[in-house]
Design a protein that fits this description.
With about 280 residues, this protein is mainly alpha-helical. It is about 75% helix and about 0% strand.
């Protein structure tokens, strides 16, 4: 079945919306990864409890335990530990940065921005704080400030270079500078070839400039690296649908929904194709 002009236009608008959604949901943390706690995490916290009980003024141990609480999803305890570490050592820039990441995860971006600023004031060459602050600027659409921070993070060798290039690419993508974004996504992938997110981001920019073949190639790699990547499956569905391949597009939408039943892009795409008799 041929797609109507209106149908193609709707898909194009949806892809543009997904680019913004993907940018908002992309990895933002630069030092602490938060995940579900496992048995090893509980043992780690218990051992840190003993260390801190013996030396309550050990700011380093409090910072490490705060990170462990953050990874376990216990954000209030993480904030308490980072705050205690800062109280003991007001120049502890890593603790400010880690607390900022927790505030960021909780959506308290004003507090996060204050802590990132403090970390940078204490340690102007501390790359992770520029990554964190730049992400807040990016999500607030303060693109000039975001680019400045990501440029600085790229200059500083101690920061996560792949993540810095990836985040800078998202800014260029949001500004419609897709060729530059593609270059930065490619650099991020050269530094971290096993990361699925830059493939997804680059695919969106390839699609935006009309290169569906390269977009599909990147999307295939994204879902190969992370088979549960709902956003990539949804984008793959849209690219296939725009190419007139409704049946495989429907399959990709359904795959996305199997991992994220609330994925609006996949849900709307599935419903749209059902109206065309697919599925």
């Amino acid at each position: 079945m041929r797609l109507t002009f209106l149908h193609r236009t709707k898909i194009g608008l949806t892809v543009a919306a997904l680019a913004l959604t993907s940018a908002a949901c992309s990895r933002t943390d630069s030092i602490t990864a938060y995940s579900v706690a496992g048995p090893d995490q509980a043992v780690n916290i218990a051992s840190l409890d003993q260390v801190i009980a013996q030396n309550p003024q050990d700011a380093g141990a409090l910072n490490v335990r705060g990170t462990a609480h953050g990874r376990a999803g216990d954000f209030e305890k993480a904030i308490a530990d980072f705050s205690a570490a800062i109280g003991i050592n007001p120049a502890f820039h890593q603790a400010y940065n880690n607390r900022a990441l927790v505030y960021q995860r909780l959506g308290q971006t004003d507090k996060a921005l204050e802590d990132f600023n403090q970390a940078i004031a204490i340690a102007p060459d501390y790359g992770p704080a520029y990554l964190g602050r730049g992400t807040i600027y990016r999500l607030r659409k303060q693109y000039g400030a975001a680019l400045g921070d990501f440029d600085r993070a790229i200059q500083l060798k101690g920061s996560n270079q792949a993540l810095a290039y990836h985040n800078r690419a998202l800014v260029y993508q949001a500004q419609g500078q897709h060729e530059i974004a593609i270059d930065d996504f490619s650099t991020a992938l050269s530094l971290d070839p096993d990361s699925s997110e830059p493939y997804h981001g680059r695919a969106l920019s390839y699609y935006a400039i009309g290169d569906q073949r390269k977009a599909m190639s990147d999307l295939d790699l994204a879902v190969k690296l992370n088979p549960r990547y709902a956003e990539a499956w949804a984008t793959r569905g849209m690219v296939l649908e725009a190419s007139g391949k409704q049946a495989p597009a429907y399959e990709s939408y359904q795959k996305a929904l199997s991992f994220d039943s609330h994925n609006a892009i996949a849900r709307s795409g599935s419903n749209r194709l059902r109206r065309f008799g697919v599925g």
